[in-house]
Request: fold
Amino acid sequence: MTASDWRKIYNMLKSKPVIAKRFLKHCKPKERTTGVARFKCERCGRIGARVGQYGLNFCRQCFREIAEEIGFKKYN
Reply:
């Protein structure tokens, strides 16, 4: 079950609070503590090629788009 699937099912169960509570207890994905998917890009949500230096937490594509706006210079 993917993350979007459990959200869709939970939205359908909002009218039944007891069943929804039990569903959340057993089916909600746990918060990641290790692994690649723990760190996501803050801008787009990608999990690969992350620039974490200086506390940025952007993927490399987003970093290239906004680097000059946040004060980085491109050296040739």
The mean pLDDT is 85. The helical segments are 3-12, 17-27, 60-66. Residues 1-30 form one domain.
